[in-house]
Specification:
- The protein is an alpha+beta fold.
- It contains 3 helices and 12 strands, in the order E-E-E-E-E-E-H-E-E-E-E-E-H-H-E.
Length: 171
């Protein structure tokens, strides 16, 4: 379903994915998910000068997946600071209510060093990356959103990301 977003003047698509609905911002490209735990996956096209696109994934682990704080800490730990200081000092954490749902968000930049796959010894080494992630608490358990990509690209999509988060509802 396409509808005009009055605030931004952009066309958007409202989607239902595993009990949550959200509006997909104009310009985001939906991709097929690799696993059933990835209820939605998007590519956010790169900003000029960046070598790659950003990726946003919505996860649902059947009501499991750890606490809000454990996930925030894990995500912040996936970013290293150039000065060697912990990323906890650089991370911006925010809690708010979106359409009646508690949502906790984190935003941190640095070198992305997450595991290439869960439990893998190999890690990414992507300097000048930005991670924006969040936990959406529902009556059926938490949903997780994770946006990663080059800093300029993620920044290019800041407004769209905020619109995406603000559009989330649970059915």
């Amino acid at each position: 379903m396409r509808r005009m977003n009055v605030l931004s003047g952009l066309w958007a698509v409202a989607l239902l994915a595993a009990g949550i609905t959200f509006t997909t911002p104009e310009g985001w490209r939906q991709t097929s998910s690799a696993t059933a735990m990835r209820v939605a996956e998007f590519t956010l096209p790169r900003a000029p000068g960046d070598a790659e696109d950003a990726t946003l994934i919505v996860y649902y682990f059947g009501g499991h997946g750890g606490s809000v704080d454990a996930n925030i800490q894990r995500w912040v730990g996936q970013i290293q600071q150039a000065d060697g200081k912990p990323s906890t000092g650089a991370a911006k954490k925010q809690s708010r209510t979106v359409n009646g749902l508690p949502v906790t968000l984190v935003d941190v930049s640095g070198t992305y060093v997450a595991e290439m796959a869960p439990g893998a010894a190999d890690r990414h080494n992507k300097p000048h990356f930005r991670l924006r992630a969040g936990v959406i608490e529902t009556s059926k358990g938490p949903y997780f959103i994770k946006l990663t990509g080059p800093e300029k690209t993620v920044t290019k999509w800041d407004r769209s990301y905020e619109q995406f988060v603000s559009s989330i509802k649970f059915q």
